[in-house]
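Purpose: get a first structural picture of the assembly so the mutagenesis plan has something to point at.
Setup: three entries, given in the order below. No constraints added.
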Amino acid sequence: MFDLIKGLRTTAKYLFTKPVTISYPEVKRPVRERFRGKHELKRYADGKERCIGCSLCAAACPADAIYVEPAENNPQNPVGYGERYAAKYEINMIRCIYCGYCEDACPTNAIVLEHQYELSFYDRKAAVFTKEILLQPVDKGWGEPPPILQNLNRPPNPPAQMEL
Amino acid sequence: MPDITLTIDGVAVTVPQGTGLVEAAREAGIEIPVFCHHPKLVPVGMCRMCLVEIGTPKIDPATKQPVLDENGKPVIAMQPNLQVACTNPVSNGMVVKTNTAEVEFARKGVLEFLLTSHPLDCPVCIKGGECPLQNLTMGYGPSVSRFDYDDKVHFEKPIPLGPLIDLDRERCILCSRCVRFEDEIAGDSVLGFANRGRAWMIQSKSNPPFNSKFSGNTVDICPVGALMNGEFRYAGRVWEIKPVPTVCPHCPVGCNMTLDMRYRDIKRVQPRSNEWVNEIWLCDRGRWGFHFVTSDKRLTKPLVRRGGELVETTWQEALEDIAQRLHGVVQNFGGNAVGGLAGGRLANEDLYLFQKLFRELLQSPNIDSRNGTLDEPEHDDLAYAFGLASGTDLGQLGKGTTVLVVGADPEEEAPVHLLRLRGIKRRGGELIVANGRPTKLDASATRTVRYQYGHEAHFVLGLLSAVLEGGSENKEFVRSRTKNLDALRTALRPFGVAAVAEQIGVAADVFQAVAQSVAGAENLVIVYGREAFAAGTPLLQALGNLALITGHVGRPGNGVLPIMRYNNSRGALDMGVRPGKGPGYTNVVKEGLTAQQMVQAAGNGKLQALYIAGLDPVAANPASRAALEKVGLLIVQDLFLTPTAQIADYVLPASSFAERDGTYTNAERRVQRFRAARNNLGDSRPDWQIFAGLGRALAAMVRQPALDTVAASAGKPTGKRPAPAQPVATARTWLYRSTDDINAEIVQQVAIYKGASYAQLKSSHGTWGRQAADDPVFYDGTSYTNTEGFGVQWPTLAEQTNVVFDLVFSQPTTPQPRNGELLLVAAPRLYDGGTLMQNAEGLSFWVAQPYVGVAKADAERLGIASGDRLRLSSAQGNVELYAKVDGLVGPGTLLVPDLAEIPLGQVQTGVLTPVRVEKVEG
Amino acid sequence: MLKTEELQINIGPQHPSTHGVFRLMATVDGETVVHLEPVFGYLHRNHEQLGEIWTYLQTITITDRLDYFNSMINEHGYCMTVEKLASIEVPERAEYIRVIMSELSRILNHAAAIGFWLQDMGSWGTTLMFGFRQREMIMDIFESVGGSRMMCNYMRFGGVARDLTPNLVEQINLFLEGFPQFIDDFERLMMENEILLARSRNVGVLPKELAAAYSVTGPVIRGSGIPYDIRRAEPYSIYDRFAFDIPVGSVGDVYDRFLVRMEEMRQSHRILRQAMEQLPQASGSYINQAYKAASKQQGLRLPAGEAYCRVESPKGELGYYIVSNGGNSAYRYGIRAPSLINLTALNDMCRGYTVADIVVILGSIDIVMGEVDR
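Result (structure tokens, whole complex):
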């Protein structure tokens, strides 16, 4: 009998401590900095897309969740730097295991796993996030394109020909 | 050739003399990185990537013997500088070091240099993932460059090198593989270098640009992403692609290729290495001609004619109705009232079931694999007896081989054969091209013979005479394996060399020289094509006799190579889809109607039902439309709603080659397997499934009595109740679950296919090429591991040493144009714009405009200039075309490209049609 | 004497106390269990086959999903195997981080396991939440270091994905400070509880010999009195640097396993204290930088060969076996899953006890179906 009371004493002690629970969804628990949540396709500061449609994220993905369909940039009105951009960029959020390898594989830091974790859908089709959903707003871009990409857009400089 | 033993990195390896060091190292399992070197091309040593240390045994100048050290081993004198491995042939006792610090340093330097002008855009480069430059940089290169990125040369890019190929000049490392391929292998010198220094670049020298039928291969052998398959550039990355092994459906070469699938889409076609067939090459039609598979004009539902309209129906309904009606026709009119045409585009399994359906269930002998047009040639039986003996590898033949090409244009009919024949010439063989007009092969020939159209057979008979007159026939062979030589000699009397020479305008010494080359050669390959078929039996018979009396049959490297119309025309004959011969060229009891006769019989109401699969008689000859419309029950099975299908009672949608399994037999009689890559389109079904479904439905209906009456009417009236001639088909025998079942039956039933079971087709060993995925990199991305095997070449009759052949003579006939008439010759065209070229936008550039080629002499005589509109008319009808005056044909002949756009069937009355020519305004 | 008849009843596969989709075919005679046959495979995911298709790096992510309470330890074992095969050196600092994560994971597992076990016994909610509160704090640490609470994907060949920042060190220290208080409270709350004792003492006894014969491992074998712990039997990583005891039971019953787990949490805490103290002096980086650079350039291709490595997971001995043929994914890949092997002794543990005891005994083995079925 005494054992029970001993246990109850502990229980009673905790009655007066502050509860550690958070009443989600009214209160949202902030995630840690390294948290891997919903993906975001980033832009450069000038609003151009970082993604060059190289499909390396799809190659790195263990779950085969990413589908990229590249297309040729229109030089007059390019979507990003270089000749290629992702015409279609889809992530199947049900397949995704949030391992973050796509982030590691991306040569232009275009895809980043951000802190959004509320991912629920009413049907399976809705779980396929298209490029429109993933893409960051135009004004939220950051950073300058690396020189290798900037160079692609400079005018051709073929070496001068020797007149023979 | 004597073998050479040398040591590479301490590994002793023995290789034939003349082997390059790179190949020798590969034998030893050591990888020497290369860019410009390619095993199929002559080494040039341009890229300097293969630098190694080479040493040879020191020779004492006095004794000419190797100097030995104290251990009795030869002293090796290492060369002071690094040497390129690709251009250095092996020599005895040579010592090669590929892994020293100096070599590694040199490789790093070469790579760093190559990368100074390379844009390093691997993530967006379509070659990324199968790129030798990428792989070798990872494997041997420096991880950093001292070159400032801003100093790189920046070109405008990409620029189209041709309608199908894009060039990115920044990526190019100027290895010249593409230039050398076009020069050496393809014989189209259309690429070249321009400028120098940093501005050095590849450019097309031809007009129209990159005018080669093999341009796609340059993309494969390009070690960087400089040459790009225009269609594939943004189609996905190479690692996302799953290659499905298949066989090209376009021409009878039967190139091994893969359909590169990304999910459900065919993204590109790549060659699959098969040294027996296509080595590692593909022609552009094979590579870019797959788009018909995804055409939106494909049939997806069975159609039935109700109230004059074709309306959709279900398979069950369609098959049961057809079975019912066919059964009714057979019961009422007998099997002879049913006919079947199945073309050489179907697979062997389909064709076998087709003939089984007709011969066994419908009791009909009327089946054929031709269109029933008037110019249709005889079926080719020559290859069954004297075809290239099994074990022949055109890619190995060389010195001592004579190739006689008669009436064929390999570039247009079977492009990859052109490469293979050129290869024989390159290796020292003789290539004799005889034709009525110039073809591309002329440029590679050691001798060209130009005869007049209509005199093909005379030419070969002249050759026969020359051989016999010169006494250079193979007497031993003639005695033991042939008979009736004397009769042949007698028959040949009017065709003596002198007489023929005069008649056809070829010098007599040409006959002597060709005869000498043919008879004296160790190996003889006789190639003949569509124009030879047009010349008919006399020519084929003469060619067979030529091979026989010179003893060039039944041995590997010898025989005839007929280039037929469709990719599986050979298989159609093998499977007995022809009147008079059953599967495996066996004789059948009842001689049936030929396609032509069937069309006629349809016209006069004797044919009650006609089943057409994979053929289009109406498009081939519009005049046959009226005849076919009279057929009570016309069933058409095709991929598209062809003109024939439009008048059909039932239209059954068939699957394309990409959606099904099966085997094709190529011109060299090699049976090869292809695999399904996609799902069936809509409700379409593989042909064999349709035949099997129909067979099941029919077998259920055909009761014993019905069969008996048919058999009784066919058999001899003995008074007794006759036993059924054929095994009674039951529903059970028509239960084919997959092509494996049919193959098993074919192997059992068809003697010549005994060795062609699926398991045996899969064998792949003993040839050089990329066998495994981890093989040292030679042609990265070029050819996939051949997982489907090399196929099986079935043995010819001549290989059975106890068979004696009859030397039959067949009198040649010459079309006699009446006064003012010209002979119409249809020249085969690879890019014919036909149904199989649908949707192939890249290729449409190369489809010629319709024209008629007129000889200069005729043009002057008739007052025709290029651009005039001509009406060609014959007894059959007429066709109007624009004239092009060129020197391609001799006087008296009109050359019309065989394009889908030109309704040649409207005028053709036979194989060579004499036509009247008149100018019309317009 | 009543004439009784044996009856077969199915517990599961959909049953709240079977810890996942797991089915027990119990043959009972009245209330007494005569025979018990575990049926599993409902959660089979082709783990080993996937590991032969995916690259080595990609396979790390699925090891997380084996025993999903202990992703860190699973990764640790897998990475060690690949490192052994490829002879990749792991820097000292990385080893410390790995040990810290592993031991945190052990505490996490035991806190949850005991909570679930008590819940199975009927202490609805309270005790489970007690354990979960600790677990939550550890998962928070995992989220901070690895980016995910459960599927951490934190370890890499040659070290770990990211370094421990001073903030994180502080976070871990904070947890360690509060932990003894928790364990004391927990003990006071439960250890001598009448009901607990009644239901767990002399229940599910697994004698020493039988335990060894079944080759069960982890708290189950230690509860039966055999002090077998890989960390001591074959010290891996840097476990030979720490002082810790291996608790053993005396009877081999359910209660002993409970006690062993409680004590193991204390010992883990002890290791953690030492590790956190030594961490600042540890040399090297959080990952083998030379290898990281090389693998970026070359990709990871393991030399042909085979390797087996085992770690002490909270469930027992977790072993990975990899055969490489020189490619970038395993030729053969196999796992010795402690949950599965421990489960084999279930029949002998349950025989003779009542149906109600089955759940308690099953809970005391502490299985995770993700690992059993793979």
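Chain C has a mean pLDDT of 86.
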